[in-house]
Design a protein that fits this description.
Blueprint: E1 5-8, H1 12-24, E2 29-35, H2 38-55, E3 59-65, H3 73-81, E4 85-88, H4 104-112, H5 118-135, E5 140-143, H6 147-156, H7 168-176, H8 179-182, E6 187-190, E7 213-216, E8 219-220, H9 224-227, H10 239-245, H11 247-255, E9 259-264, E10 272-278, E11 281-284, H12 292-305, E12 307-311, E13 314-318, H13 319-327, E14 335-337, H14 341-356
Parallel strand pairs: 1-2, 1-4, 2-3, 4-5
Antiparallel strand pairs: 6-7, 7-8, 9-10, 10-11, 12-13, 13-14
Helix pairs in contact: 1-2, 1-10, 1-11, 3-5, 4-13, 5-6, 5-14
């Protein structure tokens, strides 16, 4: 059996993508959802086909029960189903870590940033990327798991990745929803995932160095916080927008159409950019006067201040995150080789499990 789109994962993010495909597909599309939760798989298949019937769309859904962490799972899926596009939405790190609290681990993530979870986000994605490279290199990969950082890791491992979903596309779409602020010009947004944080706060608390760069036409807006002050994100993952943000791109890829919008981690670049899809390839679409080198450097600076950067095959922790990992005694506090991802992940999982059992809050200093 072949499919157009393979979605790996059965969580809320994967579900949002699948069910929005069901409601909006214009051309025939065969979607396979793979994961280990059989009841959730049955529900997503049922709901997907029901929504396709409800909205009169030519989408069809099937499922494949499989434990994505089992050895050879990614190879089995690619070998059996030969998907044209893989949307990898499975992770061993839940997205709710951004709003959870009460343990030493959640404190570490809150203070050190989401790159504390990058290795966990990368594990299944790296296995899927390797399977695609080995068995079907023409298959496109959209990695939904922390793409601003993880996609660079995948490319450093020697694999191709088209882009991710969410993050910059969350901001671009909430800004586009403010018609009066956007006006008649083309909206282009340059944003790292860290730029989401201010929009989770009330408007009067926003500011500082985490502003995205927003262009109307080729003109940059001086103060996005002021222009888009009515936009509001939830403290929790904004799945209603983030999961949905990749659907138009996914359907364009499935039908061979051109597309333009925003995506994080295009072709492994750090952070998020305006992009265009032409002949199945993503190209960064910057306003006049902004070079690609400058856009990359602007995005990369966020993780260089505090987070995880990738240079060659070396991943390096920086800033407060590195300090916290050192304080907790991690042997990987300085960084690691991306080729050692599996062993590094096992080590950091032990640290995460240990800290998750400890409720003592650390100081913010």
């Amino acid at each position: 059996m072949t499919c157009d789109i393979l979605i790996t994962g059965t969580g809320m993010f994967a579900g949002r993508i699948a069910l929005d495909i069901a409601a909006t597909a214009k051309d025939p599309v065969r979607v396979l959802i793979a994961g280990r939760n059989r009841m959730r798989l049955d529900w997503l298949r049922t709901a997907g086909n029901a929504r396709a019937a409800m909205f009169g769309t030519p989408a069809h859904f099937a499922t494949h029960p499989i434990d994505l962490l089992e050895a050879g799972a990614s190879e089995a899926l690619i070998g059996e189903h030969r998907p044209r596009l893989v949307v990898q939405a499975a992770s061993i790190q839940t997205s709710t870590v951004i709003s959870d609290s009460g343990s030493r681990w959640t404190d570490l993530v809150a203070q050190g940033g989401l790159s504390a979870t990058a290795v966990f986000q990368a594990l299944i994605s790296a296995r899927m990327a390797a399977a695609i490279s080995a068995l079907q290199p023409d298959t496109k990969l959209i990695n939904c798991s922390f793409p601003d950082v993880v996609n660079g890791m995948l490319v450093a491992m020697g694999h191709n990745v088209l882009c991710g979903t969410g993050n910059v596309a969350i901001l671009s779409n909430i800004f586009a929803g403010e018609w009066s602020a956007v006006g008649d010009g083309k909206l282009r947004v340059l944003a790292h995932y860290q730029c989401l944080a201010p929009w989770r706060l009330p408007p009067q608390q926003r500011g500082g160095t985490l502003a995205p760069r927003v262009f109307i036409g080729d003109e940059e807006i001086a103060d996005p916080f002021q222009i888009f002050e009515d936009c509001q994100l939830t403290p929790e993952p904004a799945i209603e927008i983030s999961g949905a943000s990749g659907v138009t791109l996914i359907l364009a890829l499935a039908s061979g159409r051109a597309w333009q919008g925003h995506a994080p981690g295009p072709n492994g670049l750090p952070g998020g950019y305006p992009v265009t899809l032409v002949d199945g390839q993503l190209q960064v679409d910057l306003p006049k006067g902004l070079s690609l080198a400058d856009a990359i450097a602007w995005n990369a600076a966020f993780e260089a201040r505090n987070g995880l950067t990738v240079e060659g095959t070396a991943a390096r922790y920086h800033g407060r995150l590195r300090e916290l990992l050192e304080e907790e005694g991690s042997v990987h506090a300085a960084g690691f080789e991306v080729t050692d991802l599996e062993a590094v992940c096992r080590d950091l999982l032990r640290l995460r499990d240990d800290l998750s059992q400890k409720s003592t809050a650390r100081s913010a200093g």
